[in-house]
Design goal:
Number of strands: 13
Strand order of the largest sheet: 1-9-8-11-12-13-10
Radius of gyration: 21 Å
Largest sheet: 7 strands, antiparallel
CATH superfamily: Trypsin-like serine proteases
Distance between the termini: 71 Å
Low-confidence stretches: 5-10, 16-52, 66-78, 86-92
CATH topology: Thrombin, subunit H
CATH architecture: Beta Barrel
Helix content: 10-25%
Structural class: alpha+beta
Shape: globular
Number of helices: 5
């Protein structure tokens, strides 16, 4: 049978296209700070709403420091609010309380401001983060995914970038979760390896990760977060001049979905929701990446139970999302070697 020359041409074009595609993926892998290549893969609806698989986390927790495993079974029903007696309520974080030198205490001193810039030095993202050790910071993946350079500012309640207030700062290398997906902020979590080690002090401290598994038992409990975010989502709005802290209610996931569905948003798996109060209380631009603290009845300090992720504009009524920490503890441990028990 005689082969048509067009069939031969099409076959050759298909082979060339495959080689180009393969070459592009290999080039991305070489240049990327991701743990995996295809970070733009779009997930199906089923994948986005799937419940987390906690098996790996539970194996990790059961295998380290057996004498401390009772900490992972905390009953959240008598949770304590974190003490932060600020001076007034106005808020860069909406409805937040301004921190003062006397109220900037653990675990709040573990907060850092994270600024990402591109190749020409233009700021592309302002965010928050939380200190895990002298050389490791945890933040949201979307805060650093497109950055060429990342700078971390620690130990100040005043604007760390635009004022003359002395700050502790370091450049950092971003390590983004291998399953992070930019299009839906799935697995929105990243580690920052600091180039200059921090020195702990009265204004620079580290936070512990909460080992409490996210369940409906935590619905409606009060979590605490903080940041420099502006009180508006207007273009080019300046970050706040003072760090603000705010208490927010952890929403039931079904209720959260009902509120976001009318604007065609469904928060992905492994995320929780922080309730707003009529658009007057919540996080705003520059606040994603910051820690969400929960203080259980047996804790002396609040522990990081989540990382702020997605906001749907501010000030509005839709709840913001945060990434639960619990499913990612094995991954964090594998990179930092920090024992969280």
């Amino acid at each position: 049978m005689r082969t048509s020359p067009w069939i031969v041409v099409l076959a050759l074009l298909a082979q060339a296209s495959a080689r180009v595609s393969k070459g592009l993926k290999e080039d991305v892998k070489k240049r990327s700070n991701f743990d995996s290549v295809d970070a733009t893969k779009e997930y199906t609806l089923e994948a986005l709403v799937a419940d987390a698989n906690y098996t790996e986390t539970e194996i990790y927790l059961s295998n380290i420091k057996e004498e401390s495993t009772t900490n992972s079974g905390v009953d959240p029903t008598t949770a304590k609010p974190i003490s932060h007696n600020g001076t007034d309520d106005n808020g860069r974080i909406l409805g937040g309380t301004l921190l003062t030198a006397g109220t900037f205490v653990l675990p709040l001193t573990a907060y850092v401001f994270v600024q990402s810039t591109n190749a020409v030095g233009t700021v592309i993202q302002d965010c928050g983060g939380v200190i895990l050790s002298t050389v490791w910071v945890l933040t949201a993946a979307h805060c650093v995914a497109l950055a060429t350079d990342v700078t971390v500012f620690a130990g100040t309640i005043a604007d760390p970038v635009n004022t003359a207030t002395p700050t502790t700062q370091s450049t950092a290398m971003a390590i983004i979760h291998p399953s992070f997906r930019q299009n839906c902020l799935l697995n929105d979590i990243a580690l920052l390896s600091l180039d200059t080690a921090l020195t702990f002090s009265a204004t620079v401290g580290k936070a512990s990760l909460s080992l409490v598994r996210p369940t409906i038992a935590l619905d409606n409990f009060i979590f605490t977060t903080l940041g420099f975010g502006p009180a508006t989502d207007a273009p080019f709005a300046s970050i706040g001049s003072t760090l603000n802290v705010v208490d927010m209610q952890n929403m039931n996931r079904v209720t959260c979905n009902q509120q976001t569905a009318p604007i065609y948003v469904l928060y992905p798996g492994n995320t929780g929701c922080l309730k707003t109060a009529g658009g007057t209380k919540g996080i705003c631009n520059a606040d994603p990446g910051g820690p969400v603290f929960y203080e259980s009845p047996t804790d002396d300090f609040g522990k990081v139970i989540g990382i702020n992720s997605q906001i749907l504009g501010c000030p509005r009524q839709q709840p913001s999302s945060f990434t639960w920490i619990y499913p990612y503890i094995p991954w964090i441990h594998s990179k930092t070697f920090i024992n969280f028990m």
